[in-house]
C-alpha cells in the first residue's frame, strides 16, 4: 500500500516536471507551448511596393515581417540592407525580423538596430565569435537568433541556445525563394525541440500547405514563408500555416484554432481548421 502511494507520488512528480518543461504528451504525440507566428518573407513580394506589400500581409494576419538581407558573398544573391529597412520602419509597427545572410554580420549590428530591426538573426557559419556577437546584438536591444544552413550540424548551436531568442533552421539552401522544402532538416528541429522546449524554432524555405504539417509536428513554431503567401490568398494561407502549428505543434483542438482575421470576407472564405484533406486541397506553390 505504502509503495503504491510512493509510486503515485513519483508519477505525479514526473508529470509536473514534464509539464514544467513546456511539453505535453497526448496519445504518444509530443506537443510544445511556444506560440505559432507567421512571418511572410518579402523576398517574394513586389519589391517596388515594399511598404504596401508589408502593410497588406500585416492586415491579412501576419505576425511579423521577415527581411532577407543578402550580400552577394555569403549567398549568391543581393537584396537590401539597413537603409531600405529604415524606410520601411517609418510605415509599420510590425516586428521586423532580419535574417542576415552576410559574411560579416558583426559589421551590421549598429546599422540594423538604428534602422529599427527588432530581431537580428545571423549565421553560425559566418563568424568564429558567436557568443560575442550574441552579446553585441542584445546590447543594442534587439532579439537575437542564430541560423543554420542545411549542411551545418545542429550541435553547433547547442552551446548558445540558452542565450538565444530563436534558432533558424534553413529548409532550403539560403539565397533564393521558391525552392523545395528539405524534409531532412526536420531531424534538427526535432532535436532542438526535445532539448529546448521553451525555445522559438524558426523554419524558412519551401513552407506551404503540403509541407507545414511536417514542420509543425517536428516542433517549429515560427514559420517564414514567401512564395506560398504572396502567390495566393494571403489571409487564407497565413491562417492555414498558423492553424497547422497550433494543431500539430501545440496540440490544440480544431475548435480552439485561431480564426482567420478576415473570416467571412472574400479574403478568407472557408478556413475551418487544418486537416490533411484541407491542407492537400489548399492550393499549391
Ligand atoms: O531566406 C530565404 C531564402 O534564402 C527565404 O526567406 C525565402 O525567401 C523563402 O521563400 P519561399 O521558399 O517561401 O518562397
Characterization of this structure:
This protein has 285 residues and is an alpha/beta fold. The protein has one domain: Aldolase class I (TIM Barrel, Alpha-Beta Barrel), CATH 3.20.20.70. Helices cover 34% and strands 18% of the residues. The protein contains 10 helices and 10 strands. It has helices spanning 2-20, 50-59, 82-89, 109-115, 130-139, 186-195, 212-218, 227-230, 234-249, 276-280, and strands at 23-26, 29-32, 37-40, 64-70, 95-101, 119-123, 143-148, 166-170, 200-204, 222-225. An 8-stranded parallel β-sheet has the order 3-10-9-8-7-6-5-4. The chain has a two-stranded antiparallel sheet with strand order 1-2. Strand 6 (119-123), helix 5 (130-139) and strand 7 (143-148) form a beta-alpha-beta unit. Helix 3 (82-89) packs parallel to helix 4, helix 6 (186-195) packs parallel to helix 7 and helix 7 (212-218) runs parallel beside helix 9. The longest helix has 19 residues, at 2-20. The termini are far apart. Residues 41, 43-44, 66, 68, 99, 172, 174-179, 204-207, 224-228 line the site of 5-O-phosphono-D-xylulose.
